[in-house]
């Protein structure tokens, strides 16, 4: 087992412990139900595959859809300390902490939109895709830190990789992805190009799935409409 995989495996084990320790005993059963659920197949946001740029890199178009999101303003070093808190806020929403007390099926991926704001400060916006059943009329979250967000159509370039997605792995994959795009003269939004220069980190698996994991990093194509910099709620 190489050093990078060992670090990733250790991160996954720690994440499970932090996740479980962050909630009360009464909440553990639905969490473990969610953990077991990742061995099945769950709804994903639809997209059009435009092109395969390599074995792991795809060009996609996602139609405009609604997502449940929560946002934190953090430094990259502090990101992992807040990840379980952000996840549990969204998980409580789909478990019925909403105005209709409706349970909403878990979907994949769990996506985090990363937006560089100022100096070392970044916006980390973790989102669950809202299933098609609730797209037209999603229930309003009880938690004021959880909002329903309407994202416009997204034109993305995605790279797929395995293991547990650490900051180091994300940056390695980002470099591979952007190098491929530059070599092919494909324009995309880079960090110094303003508010649309955001990227996404997406995970498709439970923390307890140790093998054949699926993660992705997405960057936006140049033709994207501006994304909301402050999360709007749905009236």
TrEMBL record:
UniProt keyword Cell wall biogenesis/degradation present: no
Keyword Signal: yes
UniProt keyword terms in alphabetical order: Signal
Signal peptide (residue range): 1-26
Pfam families on file: SOUL
PANTHER family assigned: HEME-BINDING PROTEIN 2, HEME-BINDING PROTEIN-RELATED
Family affiliation: Belongs to the HEBP family.
Protein name as annotated: Heme-binding protein 2
Organism the protein comes from: Orchesella dallaii
């Amino acid at each position: 087992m190489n050093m990078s995989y060992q670090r990733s495996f250790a991160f996954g084990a720690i994440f499970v412990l932090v996740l479980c320790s962050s909630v009360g005993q009464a909440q553990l059963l639905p969490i473990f139900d969610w953990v077991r659920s990742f061995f099945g197949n769950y709804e994903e946001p639809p997209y059009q595959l435009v092109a395969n740029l390599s074995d792991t890199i795809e060009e996609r178009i996602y139609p405009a859809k609604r997502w449940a999101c929560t946002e934190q303003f953090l430094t990259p070093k502090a990101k992992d300390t807040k990840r379980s808190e952000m996840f549990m806020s969204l998980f409580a929403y789909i478990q019925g902490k909403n105005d209709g007390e409706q349970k909403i099926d878990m979907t994949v991926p769990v996506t985090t939109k990363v937006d560089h704001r100022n100096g070392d400060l970044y916006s980390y916006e973790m989102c669950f895709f809202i299933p098609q059943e609730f797209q037209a009329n999603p229930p309003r979250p009880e938690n004021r830190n959880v909002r329903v967000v309407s994202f416009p159509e997204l034109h993305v370039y995605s790279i797929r990789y395995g293991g547990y997605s650490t900051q180091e792995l994300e940056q390695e994959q980002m470099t591979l992805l952007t190098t491929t795009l530059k070599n092919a003269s494909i324009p995309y939004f880079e960090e110094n190009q303003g508010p649309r220069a955001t990227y996404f980190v997406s995970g498709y698996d439970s923390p307890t799935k140790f093998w054949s994991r699926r993660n992705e990093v997405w960057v936006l194509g140049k033709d994207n409409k501006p994304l909301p910099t402050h999360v709007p709620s749905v009236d």
